[in-house]
Amino acid sequence: MRLIGMIPALLALTLLVTGTAAFAQDIDPDTPVLLSADELSFDEDLGLATARGNVEIVQGERVLNADAVTYNQRDNIVTASGNVVLLEPTGEVLFAEFAELTDDMREGFLRGFRMLLIDDTRLAAVSAQRRGGVETELTRAAYSPCINCEGLDGEPLWQVKARRIVHDAEGQKVVYRDATVEFLGVPIAYTPYLSHPDPSVKRKSGFLTPTFGASTLLGSSVQVPYFWAINTDKDLTLDPILSNDNLPVLTGRYRQRFANGEHYTRISGTRDDAVNDQQRFRGHIDSESRFSINELWRWGLDVKLASDDTYQQRYGFKSSDTLTNHLFAEGFGSRSYAVGEAYYFQGLQQDDEQDEIPVVAPRFNYSHVSEPNSFGGMTTMDANFQALTRERGASSQRISITPGWEVAHTDSIGSITSFRTTLQSDLYNTHEVATTGGNSQGVYGRVFPQATVSWRYPWVRRIGSSSQILEPLTALVLAPNGGNPSNIPNEDSQSTEFDETNLFSANRFSGSDRVEGGQRVVYGLRTGFYGGSGGATTLIVGQSYRFRKSSPFDNGSGLEDQLSDIVASLQISPGRFFDLLYKTRFDKDSLRSRRTEISTTAGPRALKLDLNYVFFDRTLEFADREEVTVGLTSDITDQWSARIDTRRDLTSNGGTLSYGASLFYECDCMNFELKYNRNFTRDRDILPTESLTFRLIFKSLGQVSSAVL
After folding, report:
1. Per-residue model confidence as pLDDT tens digits over 95-106
2. 305-321 as b/e, with b when 16 or more CB fall inside 10 Å?
3. Is the pTM here over 0.70, yes or no?
4. For the chain, which has fewer Cβ within 10 Å, the N-terminal or C-terminal residue?
């Protein structure tokens, strides 16, 4: 009996669907074969081997099931009939009513064909035919990725039907002829020709889904991306923006991976007359590179430049108020960190003067913490060199070295006492630094010692599976008075943000140019309740007192008087349906809030509220700010969700900044989004806009989107 001889032919039925000629070469006749059936027979006169009833043939990871399997030795024909199921090792599952394979497994036919691909998409056809070992043709076929998303009468939510589908194994593509896209059983689009890569292709050159839109800025526009898979490690996407009111915006994105890093670049350019009604070139570049030198060191480069302030916002490119160009190399030791870097900033706000924005190059930082000695003490070292240059205004070079020593001790009752001392030594070379007596230049130095003694005593109480902590905190900071001569420039942030995060910091100025001299005591209380199921409520509140009346801080900072404002932070998270963060700074005399931040989410998925509120009292640098953003989201069903939101300026000259509404649908084979937005902000050639955006994304086919502004 030559029953074993039919096994390679049966397994090669997978060729009819996967379309890979190499598959037949993977069949090893020496691999053991397991065959089970209710009945086996062999007709020597006709040369027919037959297996009937619950036939299962297993070779390696390939499994064939059928009601009956017949092998004709004379004609080299294999047939399988009745509930034919073929499981392929890569995960595909083939179903058929009848299958026949001939001519050394290069020609074949299937009837009542269905297939489940590895990405859960499905393919069905009245019949399928294999030709030449490299091409599979499906007749009266349908394709759909829908599993749980059903339309009418149990049909898929959407599907593609075609008179003929050809799978080209050599070209690695699937071609549809006379294809119709149906949604809820209704034809919505027809094309005589449609082509896309087969499921085995991860990256392939070709056109991507276009995007259509209309706006008051660009008029009617279309963006048709083309993806070029240059190699396995690099690709280029060209996606020019074509509009009827402007010249084309030429734009593209290049990506490449290396053995030790990666690179990304997005560039664009066009000519328009939106600025000053004069035709001129406008464009931008956004590039990022990251590379590892070895296990400890890496380097990177960020290049972000624009031809003018509003270009990126006008044409929909990602942007911010300041573009930061950054070159760096950094190293990570077991207890140290070092970095050398350079910065170039491009300001995009209307009041930015580019020649007054500094170039920082070079800048070096080094930090080291020693191993603890036998008493638990550790030495620290922080060093910095920075050169800062402006075309117009102050320039300076700074060398700063700050050695330190710290130790902590826990006594027998559980209180923790810590001691830290530092000696900050700075040397400045300045040019055109503005002082009260006029511009100054020269070489200036500063030596600033500081010592901090802190104490805290955590009390913990267990209540069943929950726990409560109550922890008083206090610190004494000692330093010489002053320390900020006018000849030393302040290139750090000009705004002091005093809150609970820097309440106990030795220096509550940001950066190193300004130091906080004098003697002060800081005190506070931290408490929290932690539930056994993960919920928690925490509170920290504190204040500081400076022994000397004169203050280095500006009015409105909360630190201008001897007794500071009171800062507090409350976080309440009892469970997954509520989360509140409340941060505030109270005036020490009137207890009026001078700064408030509230962020909260509340409610289940059926109806969830998110609210963000900020209030900042007037300071020397900034006017009052009071703003609220409110959103309401509802998951109507497992597939449908909706959202409304608004953002308002609550100051006397404010008003509504924006509002909008959205409707979403998401299932395993389709995403739908309808979004309305009204924006009232204005920035030079960027005017207030109103937009209605529609986006429909079909899994594995792409998206259809449009916008009206």
Report:
1. 889 988 775 556
2. ebbbbbbbbbbbbebee
3. yes
4. N
